[in-house]
Specification:
The chain is of the alpha+beta class. Keywords: Signal.
């Protein structure tokens, strides 16, 4: 069914019972404007209740009118503030229902250069040269569905994932990278309260807790509507089926339910340890104004479905992996550090995880373990980006120093190689058998080891004696380094301790079992940090345990683990190492001549960027123009029928508009050929015409011209792949919608379908952060800073 017909059907259903009968009659719909259209899918039961609401089109959830006074109270709105009045008026008019905004933040070119519209709340140039982009939902929009009614979508968008809740519903999860009282506090959300207490304002309580900072929220979409959305000229609101917080139950590192913060400054039981020391003593300079705790800077994320690598292979549950990233502690504070979080999607439970260290992370993803008894994760991030961390450094040296080389330990931030984690399923921290109902143990997240990439640093070996950053300077595609992923000595024992005891420091010592010329392949050696390892992305092709890793230095490449199944079969517990090889995709070299703009990517021309006029280069600061990639942050590998592609998202502070690219087909053949990069879009920048003129989406939210950042990528093609009668998979077939190839719960099928879809037939969700949009509606509804979740179809 074409989506135009689908939408028209919903409209008629909202106004005519006979339309429903027509739909049910012989699987056909008769519309005056479109004729007879074959049914491709069941329409969710909610569709029969779809109705017009304030003239804003049909909805697929049971909608509820907003209570003006309740919204004002919930978000502590000030009715003497014109921006707050504007916000509540927009809420009451239905202009902010989730998915209603269609105007785009991203641009194909600067409006000044191509004569595009410059008007608050409106799109600019949208002639995206390598595939169309549309808005799914926007920061500051509000949930009009009855369930979780009045929840506002908060920014800035970052990590995301998607899966099928049922055969008719795609759940798109997006978390916000928010900094709580360190920047702008988001509306406080309750955890560990009974169902009746989850609606804010919370009021007096003796149990449960509230968080500000980062949220993890979901939006449910009709599967057919999302599959056909690029052909539809209306808003995504018409296919929204629900919205809310992903988790309502939160456990801390000690395994306790998180509770209210004690007013004595020490919370002995139920502390959120990211904010405290090991005794539960508050470790930050400021307190949240309305919440107990801050969930700090949830950065990237990855959604892993049960057994996505094959029968019995991979996690035993559907898990959304997220992680806190960096922190500013109080001067002279002691602290625990920041953990990974594993969210049990079936039950809405967030577990803090200590086994991958407590060093703060950018992104953690599952890799193919090729063995039913183990899990393997790829791990990237800053390894201790903790402002005011001097006391923990001093305490580390006092208790553990000196290092193996006789020197003092230094702050471990960015003193780290590429990492993996290997865990054994069904084991407690001491290696004993776990109860079958222990979620973390069942999924291999209690008993495991962290492994770092090490290499021979002899001058005549692959590394040329260079650590990672220097190695990548002027390095061509296909260059390679043989190495090993070697287990560090540290292992999580289940006891919450301060950061001085963490595994993050291990990468300043010798490589266990490989003393001498073998070293951890850190970014800049052992005595200080180099470039950050930002996003990594799994290689999902069958038979590979591998991932692609990016860097803020602008290079990226592919790590392969060798003979994984054999190593794990032979291991008595956790193996000591894995042979590995690394291939360069892109060195830290000029890429301007590798970029295809497709006639777009035209910049506003300003003196302080040396009259740079297009997106083949980057103006990362006044009087600074770069020809390399700058601060590659977002990176996701798209596995297609043709092979692998990379989506690359910079975080450079580009004054003319941050860039996003999709690569040519990835290869590392060392044949003299470099990759190509297709310009997708740009956004933000203090000298960008729309930003400088105060254009905001929503209107009124732009407080100053400033940088944006694309962040977050999901390949939706496996979920949305249409079936032919001979191709539909047979897992969980009872009640399966024959319009699609897989049913809910088929994570392996989803991965296989992704590999079968050509790149130009894929639908890809994208995140966009708009850091300068903290005013107007966004500020009034306590949504932090702005942004959008977008959908893109490549045309390369």
């Amino acid at each position: 069914m074409k989506f135009a017909a689908f939408s028209a059907l919903l409209f008629s259903m909202a106004n005519s019972e006979s339309a429903i009968n027509d739909f049910q009659d012989e699987g056909k719909v008769h519309l005056a404007t479109t004729g007879s259209v074959d049914e491709l899918a069941k329409i969710d039961a909610h569709a029969a209740q779809a109705r017009q609401l304030d003239g804003h089109g049909p909805s697929m959830c049971t909608m509820k009118p907003f209570d003006r006074d309740a919204i004002i109270e919930r978000y502590a709105m000030n009715m003497s503030n014109p921006e707050h009045v504007m916000a509540i008026d927009a809420v009451m008019a239905g202009d902010l229902n989730i998915g209603t905004i269609t105007a785009l933040l991203p641009e194909s070119s600067d409006a000044m250069r191509v004569g595009a519209l410059v008007e608050d709340g409106k799109s600019g140039a949208t002639n995206f040269p390598h595939g169309p982009i549309k808005a799914l939902f926007t920061v500051g929009e509000i949930n009009a569905c009855e369930e979780n009614h009045g929840d506002v979508y908060t920014g800035v968008p970052d990590g995301m994932g998607a899966y099928l809740v049922d055969d008719d519903t795609v759940r798109l999860i997006v978390q916000s990278e928010s900094y709580g009282q360190l920047r702008y506090e988001t509306w406080a959300y309750p955890v560990n309260m009974d169902e009746s207490r989850r609606q804010l304002p919370v009021g007096p309580r003796t149990s449960g807790a509230t968080f500000t900072g980062s949220h993890v929220q979901y939006t449910d979409f009709d599967r057919h509507g999302l599959a056909d959305f690029m052909e539809y000229d209306g808003p995504a609101a018409h296919i929204v089926k629900g919205f809310g917080q992903v988790a309502h139950t939160y456990y801390n590192l000690a395994g306790d339910l998180i509770g209210p913060r004690d007013t004595s400054d020490t919370t002995p039981t139920g502390a959120h340890y990211s904010n405290t020391d090991a005794d539960g003593k508050w470790a930050m300079e400021e307190y949240p104004s309305e919440a107990d705790w801050m969930m700090q800077s949830l950065c990237s994320a990855h959604l892993e479905e049960k057994h996505q690598w094959g029968e019995g292979i991979g996690f035993e549950d559907d898990i959304y992996i997220t992680n806190e990233e960096w922190m500013r502690y109080a001067p002279n504070a002691t602290y625990v550090g920041l953990s990974m979080h594993a969210i049990d999607l079936a039950n809405g439970v967030d577990y803090a995880v200590g086994s991958v260290t407590l060093s703060g992370f950018e992104k953690i993803t599952e890799l193919n373990p090729q063995h039913p008894d183990y899990v393997i994760l790829g791990v990237s991030g800053y390894n201790g980006d903790y402002t005011n961390g001097e006391r923990e450094v001093n305490e580390r040296n006092a208790e553990y120093g000196p290092r193996d080389d006789g020197n003092d330990y230094v702050a471990p931030e960015n003193v780290v190689p590429a990492r993996i984690y290997v865990g054994m399923k069904g084991k407690m921290e001491d290696g004993s058998d776990a109860p079958a109902d222990d979620f973390l143990a069942r999924n291999g997240l209690r008993y495991g080891k962290v492994y770092g990439f090490a290499a021979d640093m002899t001058v005549d070996k692959d590394t040329s004696g260079l650590f990672r950053d220097n190695y990548h300077k002027c390095r061509e595609n296909g260059s390679s380094v043989d190495g090993k992923f070697v287990a560090i000595n540290w292992q999580w024992d289940g006891v919450v301790k301060n950061f001085r005891h963490d595994g993050a420091w291990e990468f300043q010592n010798n490589v266990p079992g490989h003393e001498g010329n073998w070293k951890w392949w850190n970014s800049a050696g052992y005595n200080g940090g180099g470039a950050k390892t930002e996003h990594l992305s799994p290689d999902t092709r069958p038979g590979n345990t591998a991932f692609v890793q990016g860097s803020t230095a602008g290079y990226f490449g592919h790590y392969y683990l060798r003979n994984v199944a054999d190593v794990l079969d032979a291991a008595d517990g956790l193996p000591s190492e894995f042979d590995s090889i690394y291939y360069v995709y892109q060195g830290e070299n000029p890429v301007n001549d590798q970029i295809a703009r497709g006639g777009e990517g035209k910049y506003n021309v300003v003196d302080v960027c040396f009259d740079l006029n297009n997106a083949q280069r980057n103006c990362d600061a006044d009087y600074s123009v770069q020809s390399t990639f700058e601060d590659v942050d977002g990176l996701e590998i798209i596995a297609a029928k043709e092979g692998l592609y990379a989506v690359i998202q910079e975080d450079s502070g580009n004054d003319l508009g941050e860039r996003m690219f999709i690569s040519s087909l990835l290869e590392h053949n060392l044949d003299g050929h470099e990759l190509g990069y297709h310009f997708m879009a740009m956004s933000g920048g203090k000298y960008n015409t729309r930003m400088a003129e105060g254009v905001g989406i929503p209107a009124g939210s732009n407080t100053e011209g400033n940088a944006h950042e694309f962040s977050g990528v999901i390949d939706l093609s496996g979920i949305l792949k249409k079936a032919t009668s001979e191709s539909r998979r047979e897992l969980n077939t009872q009640g399966v919608d024959k319009g699609f190839e897989i049913s809910a719960g088929d994570g392996y099928g989803k991965r296989q379908c992704e590999l079968e879809v050509p790149i130009n037939e894929k639908l890809i969700a994208l995140g966009l952060q708009a850091h300068n949009m903290n005013g107007g509606i966004v500020g009034a509804l306590k949504a932090d800073r702005g942004g959008q979740v977008l959908i893109y179809q490549p045309n390369i």
